[in-house]
Amino acid sequence: MTQQITAMRLAAHGAPEVLKAETLDLAAPGPGEVQIEHLAIGVNFIDIYHRKGVFAPPLPVPTGLGMEGVGRVTAIGEGVEGFAVGQRLAYVGGPPGAYATHRNLPVARALAVPEALSDRDIAALIFKGLTVEYLIHRCAPVTKGDTVLVHAAAGGVGLIACQWLHHMGVTVIGTVSTAAKAATAKANGCAHAIIYTEEDFPARVAEITGGTGVKVVYDSVGADTFAKSLDCLRPRGTMVSFGEASGPVPPLAIGLLGGKGSLFLTRPSIAHYTAVRAEYEAAAQNLFAAIAAGVVRADTITTYALGDAAKAHADIEARRTSGSVLLIP
């Protein structure tokens, strides 16, 4: 049995305006799938990469967008166990298609969520929170007493990272674009907020650390920050380049890493850190516990109607948002 739904889709890659509302027929869930009605949908920079067609390989068009959401189960496919109609769930990953009132989802990506947590908090935190979880606990683990540099510290991932790292006793140096964002980052656990439009951030990092540098740089900005970030690391420090908001990082002569202090470099993806179901569930439980304890919060949430997805993308790209961005069906 099919039903009509509304989805934001694109027929070609390009600017935000390629996102258009369409009425589609949604089939019943297939084997191993659950059908959900979305309650809140997270917007992330990976969606912008997908829209532009710069993510390798590009999504074939026409296509939907969106990699995360919170919804309520409306139907269950053959062979699905552990979920029931009416149950609330969250997800990250799977086929793009979250920008829709309803969708079918592989049950392997479905996560049962605590009833005490709100739809908006989960939608605001699930993708970005799982990103921070793997970055600071499994990709480049840090502990109390370490000092790190977090770029885009007032962004969705940045704020969560500042909160969680501060709770762990890690000193966070963050970069931001404005004084207002500096205040936001500091209010969320960033010990030192560098306004990179006014200051040379490697020089400030050297000043703050007494010339020793930081243990890890977490960089989602890419081209604009990568080269200078290497200069912020202490010997044997780790450069974690997990995004390209300003464009792709140019090719690197690996000998440079040796010359700058035997540095480590990784380009991780959340897909590879949540591909194994047991790891995915354990990471989610770690995140949900942090949310329930107030360690991780969604203090700043900007919401748009589902039909305003193009505006949401434009605002994110123009850096007019801070914190998490949601679409509400």
TrEMBL record:
Top-level lineage group: Bacteria
Residue span(s) of domain Enoyl reductase (ER): 14-327
GO molecular function: mRNA 3'-UTR AU-rich region binding; NADPH binding; quinone reductase (NADPH) activity
E.C. number(s) listed in UniProt: 1.6.5.5
Keyword Oxidoreductase set for record: yes
SUPFAM superfamilies assigned: GroES-like (SSF50129), NAD(P)-binding Rossmann-fold domains (SSF51735)
Lipid biosynthesis is among the record's keywords: no
Cellular component per GO, a single term: cytosol
Enzyme kind, highest EC tier: oxidoreductase
UniProt keyword annotations, A-Z: NADP, Oxidoreductase
Entries under Gene3D superfamilies matching the protein: Medium-chain alcohol dehydrogenases, catalytic domain, NAD(P)-binding Rossmann-like Domain
Protein name per the record: Quinone oxidoreductase 1
Gene: qorA_1
